[in-house]
Amino acid sequence: MGYRTVKKESVAELVEKKSRFIARVCPVSSEQEALDFLAAVKSENRTASHNVFAYRLRERNLSRYSDDGEPSGTAGLPVLDILDRGDITDAIIVVTRYFGGTLLGTGGLVRAYSSAARMGVEEAGVVLMEIAGSYRFSCSYSDYDRTMRIIRDAQADITGSEFLDEVTISYTADDTKAEKIENALVEMTRGKVRPELLEKGYFPTEE
Predict the structure, then answer these.
(1) Which domains does the chain have, with CATH numbers?
(2) pTM reported for the whole predicted model
């Protein structure tokens, strides 16, 4: 079964009544990675008023958040809600606030932290991770176009091509697509080309 996470680390900034809300988003695979990222953000922003955070992990189905001194329920929970609503896991969001001198009130804080977190996730992008295999095979230059067509027709993800004495093609595919590709390649090349399975794991796919 797959899961959704953020594609990359990102930064987004929102200014509300002279307060700066800086959202930093990062994919993580463990609680320790999340805590290390949080510590790094805090270290870079020692003079900030608050470093609010939230993270969700597949590890132990864990989620944590902190208001970091903001009124209860106005900061960490709205940030966590962005992850919950997007069904995003293995990710952390840290929203750093530099106070601008004007109180925002409960509703204003919720909107600001939620908006900053949403902007950070949009900047990072979201990807669906699914169990698939990483494969490769080599073929002659004369067979290259036909083999590429087979992979594309199966809607597998081509991850690389290397052009030496022969062409080596790498791709990822789930079991159903992988079987379809292998059968077509074996038939087309009369058994000369058979893909090699390199590893199985979670790989990004387009939603």
Answers:
(1) 3-124 (3.30.230.30), 131-205 (3.30.70.240)
(2) 0.82
